[in-house]
Amino acid sequence: MIVRASELSMSGLTPETRKRLDGINRLLEDVFKEPRLLSDMLRDAGLSEEEIARLRRDHLDAYVAGLLRRWRSWMAEILPSRRDDIVVRRYGLNGPPRPTLADLSDEYGISRERVRQLEKDALKRLRHPARRRRLERIALETAKEILGRSDPAGCN
């Protein structure tokens, strides 16, 4: 089942988490160059439908926060700082509002076209097969950690 943040009807999900989840899904689509949602990635990595449903129902805010913390830490290691900042902000991964190319252009003192080029370069770097696999591993490891904490028997 494809789930966009706008389709979620979970109680307690903050509007900020919904926007971040939409940003995550947009980023995945741009990195993988095909429709690619976080739930699909987790399913392909081996999580069961039951585990994905439990993650959505009970832990989505914590999962999104933990995932973004890990992704941002990793991206800061592999992308030059300006490119990292542009990707994080353009996809709304640090929360709303999402700046426009003009906003970032003014902030950095460069043209909108240069901002677009830096964003494109960052996405190209993230598209490398080893880096795409790392995005997937981080998503799966974060999910297993969250689910493991929520399972009193320690089984996941």
Question: What would you note in describing this structure?
Answer:
With 156 residues, this protein is mainly alpha-helical. It has one domain. The chain contains 7 helices and no strands. Helix 1 crosses helix 3 and helix 5 crosses helix 6. It starts with 14 loop residues before the first helix and ends in a 6-residue tail after the last helix.
Task: Break the fold down into its secondary structure elements and pairings.
Layout: H1 15-32, H2 38-44, H3 49-78, H4 81-90, H5 101-108, H6 112-126, H7 129-150
Helix pairs in contact: 1-3, 3-7, 4-6, 5-6
Short précis:
With 156 residues, the chain is mainly alpha-helical. The chain is 71% helix and 0% strand. The radius of gyration is 16 Å and the shape is globular.
Shape: globular
Number of helices: 7
Distance between the termini: 21 Å
Number of domains in the coordinates? 1
Q: What is the helix fraction of residues, given as a range?
A: over 70%
Q: Structural class of the secondary elements?
A: mainly alpha
Using DSSP, what is the number of strands? Answer: 0
Radius of gyration: 16 Å
- The H/E string reads HHHHHHH
Bin the strand percentage.
under 5%
Major sheet summary line: none
Low-confidence stretches: 1-10, 151-156
What do the pLDDT scores average to?
87
Label this structure with key terms.
156 residues, mainly alpha
